[in-house]
Amino acid sequence: EIVLTQSPVTVSVSPGGRVTLSCRASQSVGTHLVWYQQKLGQAPRLLIYDASNRAPYIPGRFSGSGSGTDFTLTISKVEPEDFAVYYCQQYENWPPITFGQGTRVDIK
Amino acid sequence: VQLVESGGGLVQPGGSLRLSCAASGFKFSLYSMNWVRQVPGKGLEWISFITASSRTQYYADSVKGRFTISRDNAKNSLYLEMDRLRDEDTAVYYCARDSTYISVAATFDSWGQGVLVTVSP
Questions:
Q1: What is the pLDDT along chain B (121 residues), one digit of tens a residue?
Q2: In this complex, do A55 and B44 lie within 8 Å of one another by their Cβ atoms?
Q3: What is the rounded CA–CA span in Å between residue A22 and residue A87?
Q4: Do A96 and B34 make contact, defined as CB atoms within 8 angstroms?
Q5: Are B3 and A43 in contact (CB under 8 A)?
Q6: Which of A39, A44, A31 is closest to B114 using CA atoms?
């Protein structure tokens, strides 16, 4: 089973600021990694697929990068609606499909 | 695209429950589907997958042998039969559509709102 470790657990950022989230895989997943955003009380929403491609209707301030075992999600110019929990998920080697434990982005 | 789960509630340990997910707004019969759960305040856990034709099903080890995924393409519905429920099965259960039709992406581009299952004496 591929284990995904996200860091930090929580990060605080001011609106308009920039934040970078990390996801590290226990073995290579190529670029078979996605990112989701989950706001309080809502279902997750797909943000990034294949490590770096924005899903439809996702704003350009969200960007993903990485391959192999190290990945990042960057939010540039954070908007108030971006405060949420972000999860990475791998689909290189499944089942099981595995998620990271999440990173919470809080208002500073 | 709309996915609406139902069937959650309170059940005693060792009991059974059947969740349903009604799909609309897309050609349900072309997409693989999944169940993902989330303990309140915790992270996401994938638990089951079924192909569009129902030919293939996969399960997480945590539910294998106790949960059964199925679908009825004529009714645009996905199901999760949960038996021998345990305290640790308490969670919000989401149905989630695979991102790719006909083939399989193993990523989830549409989610239901979730249904709470509480396992408690």
A1: 999 999 999 999 999 999 999 999 999 999 999 999 999 999 999 999 999 999 999 999 999 999 999 999 999 999 999 999 999 999 999 999 999 987 889 999 999 999 999 999 9
A2: no
A3: 10
A4: no
A5: no
A6: A44
Q: Of the candidates A83, A90, A88, which has an alpha carbon nearest to the alpha carbon of residue A101?
A: A88
User: Would you say B13 and B36 are in contact if contact means Cβ atoms under 8 Å apart?
Assistant: no
Angle ∠(A34,A36,A37) on CA atoms, nearest 5: 155
Q: If you measure CA to CA, which chain B residue comes closest to A56?
A: B109
Q: Between chains, do A87 and B44 touch, taking CB under 8 Å as contact?
A: yes
d(CA B73, CA B5): 16
The residue among A42, A47, A97 with the most chain B CBs within 10 A of its CB, best to mutate, is A97
Q: How far is A76 from chain B (nearest CA, A)?
A: 23
